[in-house]
Amino acid sequence: MALSSNPNLLQPAGDGADEFADAMEETESPSTSVPRKSPSPNGMTLETAIDHCRVALDLFFDNKLTEARAIMEPWSETSYYHALGNSVLAFLQAILTFEQKDIGVALDLVKQSIEISNQYRRKTTLTESFGRILKRTDYNLYTEEQIHAELCYAESMLLKAVLTFTEDETLMSFVKGGLKIRSCYQSYKECWNMLNHRKWTDDHYKVHFESGVRLGAGSFNLMISLLPQRVLKLLEFIGFSGSRSVGLSELEKGYELETSIRRVLCAIVLLGYHLIVVYVLSNGEGNLVQANAILEEQLKLKPNGVWFLFFKGRYELVQAHVDDAIVWYEKSWHSQNSFPQFHHLCFWELMWAHSMKMDWKSAGQYARRLFKESRWSKCIYAYVQAAFLCMDKEDGNLSEAEHSRLISLMRDVPSYKQRIAGKSLPAEKFVIRKSTRFFAQGDRLRLAALELLYVWNILKIIGKEWALIQACYRLIERTIKDLEAAKQDRYYSDDLALALLLKGCCLRSMGSPLQAEECFLQVSKMEKFLLDDTYLIPYSVAELGFLYHSQEKNEQAIVWLEAAKNNYKGYSLESRLHFRIHAALSQLKAPTEETGPEADDGEMVMSGLDGEFQQLPTNLADESKRTTML
Q1: Polar residues bias located where (predicted)?
Q2: Residue 295 neighbours by CB distance under 10 Å
């Protein structure tokens, strides 16, 4: 094996005649990757590369994106840490914008990172490969550079898998992303074994490696654990699943490694999960105590950091501290101008914050800014503006100019529809259907903005503040009273079903579960009367399950949630509901299906025996066979 004579110099491994890399995709074979060459005439040590990444991350989270890139880019074609850092910056921009151009740039940089890190990975001889069958690999033979190259390779593969998922919504893209995750998994499994079976002589290098392994293992498990059973069925086919409890545990351990460069990334993932993912994809609550502790610490270090100011706003919002949330979101917005896509995130949150207060005009102003400045979905931005105008119209607060704008927006909503790989986005299909309904009902939609607050799972948050939920409840009651005089209208049943569903949600938050149950049951029996809003039936059935879950009536909850999952298909926003059902069922079945295994030393392992990720339990696999694949 030809290795650099200087153990601290990042030099690619040599080309032995019988050498090959484990768990490599064919497209990333050493023979077809970037030509192997010394990083620079002066060399780049591992310690220096890590220090560069530390400085770049500090700059990035201090709103200095250009300066961070200036550190990464000069070495990004020769140093695997710089290549990875450069691709992470591009990845974050792609995820924020979801622009195909940005995704393409990020993919190119991630592929470059994979190729460069692969140059430095240890190449296993045929003799060593056969020896693995008889005994465990001796990771003490690996240099520090080879160990970290394996980790950077795994991290790059994970970025590539996520970007592949976002390229389009086709099943083929999903399968390709899943297969890339499997390659990533193999490399993370190797890193996990290195961490646990190597005799570390330098804690400085170990702490950076360990935090990276825990970040990857935690993110991997958490990401897969969020997927509904119909998606897990496909992932089971390619051989893995994830555990929420293991994921959170590993991320927490990674964050506890205070001197690690990846600690801040563990913080971002934990905050994203506890403050955003939980409230969008489930009916549960995030760990706000942990989120607050992370925010207090990070805001002391980065008081003007756009990311942590934003998460502080989100922390206040999910507690229905709306005015405080608005203050923090505005601070985040005004803290920087080098990353305009982050302004759009703030506008999106400010839009919902003002709508929670029923300040439709202020909410509409942010929706209008998003429509003008963001390219994510003009279709949704146009409809949201129109929905807020509908609320003012119902209150008699609409000027003639605003009414003309309402008509124009609703008319134009379908023209903004995007098609990605020949498919429309589910949320866009939903609002297009609503805009068509607006004209079919004589230029009106009842409770249009409250419906959006419900489907974006924000009505549940409003329920934490009595004054806010009372205001919603009074508006809904007034609408139901108005409907008494509209029983001959074609869409009377659709309007009534929506109002009753929203009323039930308010009553649950207001501490009246029996009345809430009555509302949900009434909606669940209206299927044959609905012309358009058929999604309300499975949603009302699921709400009964969520209600029983909150009352610890677990058997009833499971029955209703399984009914909502299995008995309906082809309705609007179906996948969104399946995510929430999956999260609730995972909690209900947690004692047997969610708890990760433990290693002999009492610490959580990646999942399963010998460092393998948790396999899908048999009973869950059987259950998934009753669902339809994507």
Answers
A1: 29-45
A2: 21
Contact yes or no for 385/364 (Cβ under 8 A): yes
Is residue 304 a part of any domain in this protein?
no
Our CA angle for 53, 57, 62, nearest 5°, is: 150
Instruction: Decide if 579 contacts 278 (C-beta within 8 A).
Output: no
C-beta of residue 46 within 8 angstroms of C-beta of residue 151: no
Range of the structural domain that residue 485 is part of: 461-594
Any bridge partners for residue 420, and if so which?
423
Enter the tokens of residue 404: 């003309």
Q: How far apart are CA 624 and CA 236, in angstroms?
A: 10
Separation of alpha carbons 446 and 498, rounded Å: 9
Report the alpha-carbon angle 551-557-560, nearest 5: 140
d(CA 72, CA 85): 6
Is 395 part of any domain? no
- Write a three-state SS string for 82-103: HHHHHHHHHHHHHHHHCCHHHH
Tally of structural domains, the chain: 2
424 - beta bridge partners? 419
Q: Phi and psi (nearest 5°) for 423?
A: -120, 145
What would the pLDDT profile of 7-63 be if each residue is shown by its tens digit? 333 444 443 333 333 333 433 433 333 333 334 434 789 999 999 999 999 999 999
List the one residue out of 344, 391, 332 whose CA is nearest residue 368: 344
515 belongs to a structural domain: yes
Phi and psi at residue 125, to the nearest 5° = -75, 165
- Do the domain assignments include residue 104? yes
Q: Which residues pair with 340 in a beta bridge?
A: none
Q: Please say which residue of 176, 201, 226 terminates a domain.
A: 201
Do 156 and 84 form a contact (C-beta atoms < 8 A)? yes
Within 10 A of 14 (CB to CB), how many other CB atoms are there?
A: 12
Say which residues have a Cβ less than 8 Å from residue 241's Cβ, sequence separation at least 6.
Answer: 224, 225, 232, 235, 613, 614, 615, 616
Q: In 396-478, which ranges are E strands?
A: 419-420, 423-424
116 vs 120: CA distance, rounded Å: 7
Would you say 601 and 608 are in contact if contact means Cβ atoms under 8 Å apart?
Answer: no
- Retrieve residue 502's tokens: 């929203």
Name residues of the chain where pLDDT drops below 50.
1-42, 169, 237, 592-630
